[in-house]
Amino acid sequence: MPNAFDADKLMAAARAAREHSYSPYSAFAVGAALLCEDGTVVTGCNVENASYSLTVCAEEAAVAIAVSQGRRRFTAIAIAGPPEGATPPCGGCRQILAEFAPSLAVLYSSGAESHETTSLETLLPAQFELP
Ligand code: THU
Fold first, then answer.
1. What is the pLDDT along the chain (131 residues), one digit of tens a residue?
2. Got the DSSP string for 28-52?
3. What residues does 20 pair with on adjacent strands?
4. Mutation to probe ligand 1, out of 18, 22, 23, 30 (largest number of atoms < 8 A from CB)
5. Whether the CB of 46 sits within 6 Å of ligand 1
6. For the chain, which domains are there?
């Protein structure tokens, strides 16, 4: 069982991080808030580039920042996208998250004030690992 956490607070942190999104090309702003096992919340946002494929996803940014701080154990991630529609993590981000937290709790926005709760095992079954 993952540690108990305040889902609304984590989603609020993701929505706040979304405000920093640099997404002039897609106009699709995303924020992420990663809850570390030590209780720290590390946030990230998507950072786009004129060379489109160099874009960094919000979840990827949050993981890179957390790992660079020496944090590799995560309890949950909240992801906030545009208020219209849902923003589950892309396939690449699922793989990045699985590297550190195969059974992470995943919350993603499904509206301006609503979110879905699932797990990485559900979003990415049969996870790849090296033998
Ligand atoms: N994006 C994320 O930040 N996370 C995801 O899981 C899906 C996509 C960003 C990348 C790009 O800047 C924009 O959303 C549109 O794809």
1. 445 899 999 999 999 999 999 999 999 999 999 999 999 999 999 999 999 999 999 999 999 999 999 999 999 999 999 999 999 999 999 999 999 999 999 999 999 999 999 999 999 999 999 99
2. ---EEEEEETTS-EEEEE-B--SSG
3. none
4. 30
5. yes
6. 7-115 (3.40.140.10)
